[in-house]
Amino acid sequence: MRADDWAATGLDPLDVADAIGLRLTVEDVLTWAPFRPLEIHWARRHGLSLPEARRWAGEGVPIRDAVRAVAVGLGIQELHRWEEHGFNASDAWEAKETGLGIEEAAEWREAGFVVPDALQLVRDRWTLDAAIVARNAGIDRYRHRQA
Q1: Closest to 112 in 3D by CA, of 139, 81, 88
Q2: Which secondary structure element, helix H or strand E, spans residue 64, and what is its range?
Q3: pTM for this one?
């Protein structure tokens, strides 16, 4: 592939190197524009079609999150319900993957846990009440240092 061919894509040299390394062609990059080479590779590797990728992107969802959302059965409308409650796309698909609903995820967040940490605790079979007690016990043992 000649450098002139890649110039038609508008990619910078690093993205061209990525595209070549990911075995994408100039035609692939032009067809999938404006997606970046890594996004194109990720979508294709996980079976996300170009129309689906464009639909998710049109809703403001990055390729990596669209791939994961589709994999766990999270649709765009359900994602919007999560967003209405202040969650981002990665929180939504990871919560769905873990089996947590919006209300339960909100309870963990309101208790002071960031969503990825809360979901790890849920996967490890922690209850919210037990997690709060453990967290507070950890905080209490350092209170003497605040003086």
Answers
A1: 139
A2: helix 63-72
A3: 0.81
